[in-house]
Amino acid sequence: MSLYEGAVKRPIMTSLVFIAIAIFGLFSLSKLPIDLFPDIDTNMIMVMETYAGASAEDIENNVTRPLENTLNSVNYLKHITSKSMENYAIITMEFEYGHNIDQLTNDVRDKLDMISTALPDGAGTPIIFKFSSDMIPILVLSAQANESRDALYKILDDQVANPIARIAGVGSVSISGAPERTVYVYCQPEKLEAYNLTVEAISQKIAVENRNVPGGSFDTGNNAYTLRVQGEFKDPKQMENIVVSTMGNKTVYLRDVATVADTLQERAQKVITYFTNPSDPQGYSGEQGAMIIVQKQSGANSVAIAEKVLELLPRLQRTLPSDVTIGVIVNTSENIYATIGSLEETIIYAMLFVAIVCFIFLGRWRAVVVIVITIPLSLIASFIYLSATGSSLNMISLSCLSIAIGNVVDDAIVVLENVTNHIERGSDPKQAAIHGTNEVAISVVASTLTMIGVFFPLTMVTGMSGVLFKELGWMMCIIMTVSTTSALTFTPMLCSLMLRLKKRENWFSRWYNHFVVRGMLDKLDVWYAKRINWAVRHRGVVVLGIIVFFFLSLMPVFTKQIGTGFFPSQDSGRISVSLELPIGTRQARAEEIANELANKWMTRWGTPETKVLKACNFTTGQADTDNTFASMQNNGTHIISFNISMYKVKDRLMNLTMYDVGNQMREDLKAYPELVKKNVVEGGQSGMGGQTVAQFEVYGYNLAQTDSLIRILRDSMMTLDGVSQSLISRSDYQPEIQVDFDREKLARYGLDLSTAGAFIRSRFNGTTASYFREDGNEYDIVVRYSPEVRESIETIENIMLYGTRTNERGMTEVCKVRIKDVGQVVERFTMPTIERKDRQRVNTLTCVVNTDKSNLGKVVEAGQAFVEGMRDRGLLTGDVDIQVAGSYEDQQDSFRDLGMLGLLILIIVFIVMAAQFESMSDPFIIMLVSIPFTFTGVVLALWITGVDLNVMSMLGAIMLIGIVVKNGIVLIDYIHLLRERGYSVITAVVAAGRSRLRPVLMTTLTTILGMLPMAIGTGQGSEMWQPMGISIIGGLLVSTVMTLVVVPSVYCIFQGIKIQRERVKWADELGIELEWKKKHHIFKRRK
Amino acid sequence: MKAVFIAFDQAHREEVIAALNSSMMRGFTCFEDVQGRGSVSGEPHYGSHAWPGMNSAILSMCEDDRVPVIMERLRKIDHERPMLGLRAFVLPVEESL
How distant, in Å, are the alpha carbons of A78, A1056, A1060, A1074, A1077 from that of A1080? Predict the structure, then answer.
């Protein structure tokens, strides 16, 4: 008993097997996490190494270089970049995609162990982070407070940040804009000197006074007591009464030389959040508060984490003081949900369209049900795969479903059609189902094999696109296999149960037969038969015509009308803006500008009438120096960083995309010439779906030379229309106040450089003398000069240094000297950061491409021309070199991979077809016609819609190879059948064309309409899959028309040659002179 | 005694056997997959790419009085679905075991 016979005869078993698959699939679906992409960002490892006191150049030479040299030999390393800054180095390793991050981390750790002895003595232990600091935060929360504002940091740290940090997958939680409570002891330098006191002495005194001392235990009578001295301060004001010294018989209290301030940290970041507020007359309101930034670990699922955090928030809110409110400024998962939601919508539409196409062609609801039911069955089965491999519901897996919808019905249609034929000939539905399926089983399997031939190689792509396409490849293979199995078992089973010979006549079937069948479909068949009849009789004209058409259609390519890009940019509704004023600008000025901009933007876009910006939040000021992680980020009094989140695309009342808003912001920023650096980033900068950027890397050791070169390049690039913003990665030299000590003079006063340095540090930076404890919390007690004296260079010069030396009489004596007497205070400029890539100093120019006006390919090409110009002028001397990097590099890699893949797929498809037809010429005919015109169609579609050729559209084109040859297979297969039945070539071709027109149109239309929602979708994230939809529709449309018209003609040409050769051979054998040869020769050979 | 040779499209198989049963003809020999072509009309049944249909054939021996009954029933089946094809031939049986 064959597969289909078994299925038809055992309907219960068959349906239950498929129901079981569906249940498993739905169960898997309920467990699937949601993400934007398959797991792609696990390829960054960051190593941080501290070396206190070293300048950027020292760090570069002593720490960064040895580390780079060792880490460079870790396997699968793609790029190694480093930043050498004062006190520390950060080395970021970018690995090839698709390798286990844990294994790589271990390798990195091994290498670090090897190098540890070669590092300088004072260097700390390198720390490995499994994420990169430029990964965008998944959540930004805001915290507003009134009465509790001063205690906000502690409250947030204990009650919000800590519980959030405990959630699995959270990489870091940092709080900014909430200054910590600190007890400052502000000393007056002249008073200290008067009493011969130093800041150090005061710190020490505070430390020894603020202490609880256990005194052991003592027994008296029957009782045992513990003995204690309770000395800790209950109130910071108590400190003022400490005796710090006695002079003669006078007591010097702390209040005599210093003031105690129980206040907030001096330097702190300030965060102001503006948000749409319908109850405010302006339409928005702004409040100062704190910001909590949540970053995830490499490989963790953003949506899952965001969901858990948001779930936790109401609970946390209850534990907070009543005036503290936590809000959400940026939530990445919102965009992901919206994107996945709109993709799900396109899938529903695609299913609907496919059902409508089936109904128009078949006219019977029973037949439509039989076919359409295979869609959910095969799609649901693929969820089992996703769940088993630990993948997620993401844009790739869902686009894959969308592509599959049009294809999974094809097999079922073929089976149904043949079964219907059998029934119409008089078979019993059961018999018809078995025999009808049996007849087409081989061609159904063959056409599935061609599809698998296309999608299986996708699973072998490596690199970044590999991560994406592996999933797509496997899913399509699985869906195709399931749909074919279903077409061979479930479909015949349903046919045997649902189809019947005598159709009941009702108003609909009469109407359908009259208007659709006779009115349209039959007329179309006749019309097509006439065209094809003409075409096969005018083969030369047809062939010449299509060759001309082919070359004309490639004109957009030759004239460079089609842009190229890497991945489409997606409107994720997030913009970040970072602005830099000249170094040393006060925070107040930065804040003023920031408020001005925020108000301007919120009035324009943030009111309930416009509903574009949801929240606009900015941070100014310097982060706490204790917070190493925060200080790694760019911060300073002169830096403003904005975090802006927008409404979902469909909720916006003004029709603006993220890019429109970003470009307008750039225009606004031009009004501020004092901003030395302006960087507007729409979405994320790196990876997929972010901003399109062209990067030029200037390599070279000489900093001045590379600086000047990159400026020349930047100025040239900014003249281009398509570049909306450019940014040089190397920051300007930073002014510094330095103290140059005369070592000889220092030694004369019994001092050395580090002691003298420590004096300066404890006076300006301050020393943490002790901790003030209250309600179980600890607060720093910091002793330093009072703020008003810390503002002048004289204060530095007048710092009194105390040294001890042995005098001529062998006695130790304390000697005092001012800094100005042993050294000089000077202002110098230093390089704040040295960046390196692949072990060379690098300076990167990042140009943001305005995708409305230009495209990545064009901008990079123009940039390369500028670079060549510079090379010709002899500017690139010595070791200096300029290279293109960024999206362009990834794009080139992906295009090369996909190109190779295309070739591989062509070969496999050819093999499958040749095996099916047992002929080399037939698959050749099909490919000769379908494949070139697929590209014609893709090119024309991209040209008309103005969409770039990027990885997504390229992927669409590659998938088309499998889809388009199917039409050719159907046609040629039927021509063969008719030829075997004894038809002449031309009659067979015309009859086959007429008979196969409907199935070809039907399968093509299901695919095209299945892709239509993707191509015209306007939902969140639609930019991403639009190019794929457009290229598939364009390619399939042109290729199908060409297949229907040209394949018959070319087939006739090949058959003509074959027949004539046979006739010539036969005539030669018999020695007959053929008269017609002189007239009808297509091919002159012999004699 | 007569031999009835019935060649028919596979799709008729169950009906033909039902006809035999209802004609009180118990014994038969069935050839599941056979190829064939009609002398006058009808599609060939070769199981090939061009002619994918297949026939079955049944050879049944019966008493003479059963012949008109079975022939009548088979004629009816053929008449209902002329496109499928069914032919029956009655031959004399000379000797049996």
Answer: 63, 10, 10, 11, 5
pLDDT score of A886 more than 90 = no
Q: Which residues from A are below 8 Å from B when comparing CB atoms?
A: 422, 425-428, 431-432, 435, 438-439, 976-981
Instruction: Check CB contact under 8 Å for B84 and A425.
Output: yes
For the CA atoms of B30, B32, B33, B37, the dihedral, rounded to the nearest 10 degrees, stands at 40
Q: Comparing C-alpha atoms, which of A141, A156, A123, A160 is closest to residue A48?
A: A123
Q: Could you say which DSSP state residue A180 is in?
A: P
* C-alpha distance from residue A120 to each of A460, A832, B76 (Å): 45, 21, 104
Residue A439: which H helix or E strand, with range?
Answer: helix A429-455
Strand partners, A290: A143
- CA A531, distance to chain mean position in Å, is 50
> Which of A292-296, A380-384, A385-389 bottoms out in mean pLDDT, i.e. has the lowest?
A292-296
Q: Are A1007 and A362 within 8 A, CB to CB?
A: no
Q: Is the pLDDT at A481 greater than 90, yes or no?
A: yes
Answer whether A803's CB lies under 8 Å from A824's CB: no
Q: How far apart, in whole angstroms, are the C-alpha atoms of residue A279 and residue A596?
A: 22
Cβ–Cβ under 8 Å, residues A422 and A484: no
ipTM: 0.85
Q: Is the CB of residue A789 less than 8 Å from the CB of residue A257?
A: no
* Beta-carbon contacts of residue A83 (< 8 Å; ≥ 6 apart): A89, A90, A833, A834, A835, A836
Q: CA A613 to CA A244: how far, in whole Å? A: 57
Q: Do A912 and A450 touch, CB atoms closer than 8 A?
A: yes
pLDDT at A630 over 60: no
Check CB contact of B2 with chain A, cutoff 8 Å. Answer: no
Residue whose tokens read 């959910």: A376
First vs last C-alpha separation in chain A = 58
DSSP string, A581-648: PSTT--HHHHHHHHHHHHHHHHHHH-STTT--EEEEEEEEEPPPTT-HHHHHS--EEEEEEEEEEE--
pLDDT digits (tens, 9 = 90+) for A710-737: 888 988 888 888 888 888 888 777 777 8
B44 CB-near residues (< 8 Å, 6+ apart): B35, B36, B37, B38, B51, B53
Closest CB from A431, A432, A980 relative to B50: A980
Matching residue, tokens 């189809």: A499
**Cβ atoms of residues A444 and A488 within 8 Å:** yes
User: pLDDT tens, A36-95?
Assistant: 777 765 578 888 888 877 778 888 888 899 999 999 988 888 889 998 887 788 898 888
Distances (CA, A) of A82 to A597, A663, A839, B23: 34, 31, 8, 94
Q: Do A427 and B14 touch (CB under 8 A)?
A: no
Q: Residues A878, A702: contact at Cβ < 8 Å?
A: yes
Query: Which residues are B92's β-sheet partners?
Result: B2
| Assigned token pair, A665 | 């912001």
Residue type, A744: E
Closest CA to A385 of A40, A98, A21: A21
Residue A787 per-residue DSSP state: G
**Using a CB-CB distance cutoff of 8 angstroms, which residues of chain B are in contact with residue A499?**
none
Minimal-distance CA residue of chain B relative to A977:
B50
**Structure confidence at residue A580 (pLDDT):** 86
pTM: 0.80
Show the domains of chain B with their CATH numbers. 2-92 (3.30.70.120)
Do residue A435 and residue B83 have CB atoms under 8 angstroms apart?
no
Quick one: angle between helices A490-498 and A429-455, nearest 10? 150
Specify the 3-state DSSP secondary structure of A693: strand
Retrieve residue B39's tokens.
Answer: 């002398």
